[in-house]
Amino acid sequence: MLCTRGSLISAAAVSCLLVTGCGSDENNGAAGEPSVIGSPVGQPISSPKPAPSADEEAVPEPAADAPFVEHVKHELRTRTVKMAGAPGKTSARCDKDDVKPAKGAAITCTVTYEGIDVTWPVTFTGKPGFGGMGDGYEAQPSTGILTREGVTRYFWGNNHDAGKDLRCDTMPRVKKVLLDRKSGYRCTYFTPNASTDGRDMWITQDVYITTNGPRARV
């Protein structure tokens, strides 16, 4: 077949467009990247109600002359409320009615928070503790307590200055979860121009429960 110079140029142009998009901008790949990194999870949350006062959050103290075990129960109930990050109805029971806080002595107590049991094995260290008389102890709870109120208050307080449009997965009012492990719930917030190339980002964090309360981290 006879090809003229003009037909050869036209064929080459068509081939170029089909195969490589000749003459396209070298930044075409960058242009194809999303303008926002990440994506939101859950539903928007708003500013939580003010944190409870010390009086509202406090567990009633036993009388000064109450049996020593009653003071242990009070301490463990207080620690359980702190772990939950929100005030709640608590009670406590122990496997002994009395114990002397000598080094090596042990007792097991169970705190019930809003219907959920948390077991605290307690071992006394003989060092100064909450009573200052050699009644220090070590205790690690058997489970974590997640509360929607506690997580929302923590996440809002920790991130509302860094970003906007804060969101969290839908959570139950209170739930037993593994301690210091991913709870299965996440929260996220939007922050503009956060990436190294100036793009906006959704920052998503996993929710954990610690003995010091709810936490969230990437």
Summary?
The protein is an alpha+beta fold.
Folded structure, characterized:
This is DUF4333 domain-containing protein. With 218 residues, the protein is of the alpha+beta class. It folds into 2 domains: 83 residues, no CATH class; 89 residues. The protein has 5 helices and 12 strands. Strands 1, 2, 8, 10, 11 and 12 form a 6-stranded mixed sheet that branches. A 4-stranded antiparallel sheet has the order 3-4-5-6, covered by helices on one side. Strands 7-9 form a two-stranded antiparallel ribbon. β10 and β11 form a beta hairpin. 23% of the residues are buried.
Main β-sheet description: 6 strands, mixed
Shape by Cα distribution: elongated
- Uncertain stretches: 1-29
State the secondary-structure class. alpha+beta
What string gives the helices and strands in order?
HHEEHHEEEEEHEEEEE
Mean pLDDT metric = 84
Count of individual helical segments: 5
**First-residue to last-residue Cα separation:** 66 Å
Helix content: 10-25%
Total number of domains: 2
